[in-house]
Amino acid sequence: MRTVLRRPAFRLLFAGLFFSMTAESVLLLALGIWVKDMTGSDSLAGATFFALVAPIVLAPFIGFVADRYQRRPFLIATNIFSAVILAPLYLVHDRGTLWIIYAVAAAYGLSFIAVGAALNGLIKEVIPVELLAEANGALQTVKQGLRLFAPLLGAGLYTAFGGWALASLGIVGFLIAAGVITALRVHEDQPVRTEQRWMSEVTAGVRQLFGQPGLRLAVLGTTLAILVFGLGESVFFAFNDQGLHKPAAFLGVLISVQGVGGLLGGLTAAAVMRRVGEVGTVAAGLMLFVPMYFVGAVYQNVWAAFPAMVLCGFGLPYLIVGLQTLLQRTTPAELMGRTSAAMDALISGPQALSIGAGAILVGIVDYRILLGVMALVVSIAGIWVWAGRRLTPPAAATPTQSTDEPALVTEGRASAG
User: Fold this and answer.
1) d(CA 298, CA 397)
2) CA–CA separation, 217 and 221 (whole Å)
3) Which residues cross the membrane (predicted)?
4) What is the pLDDT of residues 161-171, one digit of tens each?
5) pLDDT in tens, 112-136
6) pTM given for the model
7) Cα(331)–Cα(245) distance, rounded to whole angstroms?
């Protein structure tokens, strides 16, 4: 990680993303807690996360737009948009204005897709391909490390001051991120616009995604797991409430415990990838979710949940770093936005359906049964992906060490080539 942080362009991008990731980490869980507190409903709280991922149906079009603009200005504009859409949260005051939270969550879901489409391309501009795993690992270290305090901060701000404090912190975080990224200087060629039919251009990312065997397996295996991951957005409210007998805000504590594993997972993801390759890292990430689902189904105990959440925390950065590094390494720059958005759609689309199903099922099926089903399906997905780990041998992810390059323009051109 120290190697990649020596590069000035990445340090500046890293700093900007720190502020936006802080805002994101505070908001995501806190919005669900806000709905739970106003309504007392696990299903309505889980529906907040459904609103966040529902815009994924527009991902191919967002990727198409992202590929028509330079990454840096597009990312700046997206952060400003993220700040603006949080302003209506100041109008939420009772159950009658609950729809505003859902509308804001859906709008933020759009910006989240746009950030991913631009960021994957921008990272490839400022970092050479042999350091992609370390760059993604560094970002995941911060993102998962934020889970140590950001959910508690969000829950604490909401408890002490109400929802307006969440909106304020989010707006400030996204605006600072936009300002910092504005200072980034990196060479970007003008996007090449090909003369193809509009639908062919929009679907180019899907063709790229399925044209790479390793990437195809990793995405399909993750998609299978995501079909049940989404159930957890409602199921864990029930586990916390009925199993642990804790208030809704205690979910912030569990997510912070998960952040301990996430922090360590981000620090070690690049090293794991050097041993088992990108597909193997994705498989390991999937399997590390299983203990938490098993514990939730069998043991309704805080002290059993804590270590299981730590393991779950390890799994998330392994899964994300493996997928993103494989995507960035195998995708041409001109297709990065569309391919990134296609991967988001293939993963988050089933997640949206799963979240919707979870919001319904948690009211009619014992949450322990649902957690048992989740453990079984994710185990199958992890074993399937692990069996194909040789599609991306460890040598494909091994970084070189001679990367200390101070010139920002040289960095961008080297990575683009």
Assistant:
1) 38
2) 6
3) 12-35, 47-66, 73-93, 99-123, 167-187, 217-239, 251-272, 279-296, 302-321, 342-363, 369-387
4) 777 888 888 89
5) 888 888 888 888 888 888 888 888 8
6) 0.76
7) 47
d(CA 279, CA 290): 18
Interatomic CA distance for residues 322 and 272, integer angstroms = 10
- Whether pLDDT at 176 is above 90: yes
Q: Quick count: other Cβ atoms within 10 Å of Cβ 286?
A: 29
DSSP state of 189: P
Q: Which domains does the chain have, with CATH numbers?
A: 2-193+204-416 (1.20.1250.20)
Count CA within 13 A, CB hemisphere, residue 370: 26
Reduced to 3 DSSP states, what percent helix, strand and coil does the chain have, rounded to the nearest 5? 85, 0, 15
Share of the chain above pLDDT 90, in %: 23
Out of 55-64, 80-89, 148-157, give the one with best mean pLDDT: 80-89
C-alpha distances (whole Å) from 128 to each of 52, 160, 268, 351, 394 are 32, 45, 20, 32, 18
Instruction: Give 239's DSSP letter.
Output: I
